[in-house]
Amino acid sequence: MASTAVTRDIDPLSDRAVYKQIADIIRQQIDDGDLGPGDRLPSETDLMQRFGTARATVRSALEVLAGEGRVTSARGIGVFVRERHAVPVVVRQTTERFAREHRAAGKSPLDVDGEASCVRLRQEVLALEETPAPPEIAERLQVPSGTTVFARRRLVCLDEDGTPLHLADSYIPLALAKGRVREPDSGPGGTYTRIEETLGRRLSHFTEELTFRMPTPSETRHLRVGPGIPVVHLVRVAYADDQPVECFVGVLAGDKHLLEYRIDTDVDTDQ
Amino acid sequence: MSDGPGDVGTGRASGNTPGPPAVDPASDRPVYKQIADWLRQRIDTGAIPVGERLPSESRLMQDFRTTRTTVRRALAALAAEGRVQPRRGIGVFVRARTRRDAVVRQPFERLARHHRESGKSSLIVDAESQGLIVRQELLELVEVPAPPGVAKHLAIDAGTPTLLRRRRMWFGEEPTQLDRSYLPLHLAKGPLRAEQPGDGGIHARLEEAGHRLTRFTEYVSLRMPTPAETLQLRLIDGIPVVDLTQVAYAGTRPVECFIAVLAGDKHRFKYEFDA
Question: Which of A151, A229, B63, B172 has its CA 20 to 30 A from that of A44?
Answer without folding.
Answer: A229
